[in-house]
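tool=predict chain=A
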Amino acid sequence: GAGGRFLHRETGFQYHRILIPSGAETMRISLEAVSREVADKSDLKAFFLYRPEHCAWRNVRYRHCRTNGLSIHNGFGMLFEDIDISRSGDESCRCASDTEDGWDGSQNYTYRRVTCHDNPHGDFTVCCGHDFTYEDCNMRIWAMRRVGGACYRNCTFKGGEFECRYRSRLHAVRFENCRFTGSVQIGSSKKDDKKIGQADWEIVLNGAEIVGADPAKPISVTAGTTGRIRNCTIRNAVLKGEKAHFENCKTENVKEEWK
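tool=predict ok
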């Protein structure tokens, strides 16, 4: 800042794709650091992977898949369109779709008109990955804190949990015209509070409609330590978490159970 004043320190996280020319036999990586000792502690890793790129799945139905119906490993630029997944995830991953495979190597996925129903445990478990876009989807979703730069557009969620910790992992998450018919949690859960402490980033659910179908059976709506629920319409629900993190919301038939 002005006068050389220190402003802010931020932990960075980067994941780069490097294309290897045809016929190459060796690779050299140079790392700049103030000393050899500092460089040795950088935890730099390089992986050589064959990966699927720019593939499309259209008009596919998955039925009775034992572990999960859809799990693409380490892909880039993938499109999933008009997908229906049901009665899947009985064992192991226990969900209709799991993006754990590939971890941060999974990048630029588009899910368009993906519907999940009648799955015994979970629908979408998103452990990681960068720049995923969901459009006109109908599902339950659990997006963990390693998910970076996700966009949810015109989706109906039958339940959702969206974790958040540091901006270097989460980046900016966008919700556009989304509707929730089941319980939703934005930000860290109570059990994570001690681990997180003073996190430097928040996830914001803005302008969504959160409506439980049965007034006698209210759904849970939670704003965690690192979550904000803003400009939303909420009906038939129990509000939980941080009271101050509900901002300018319209409510009807709600109860309050603040921590």
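The chain has a mean pLDDT of 84. Helices lie at 36-40, 167-170, 193-196.
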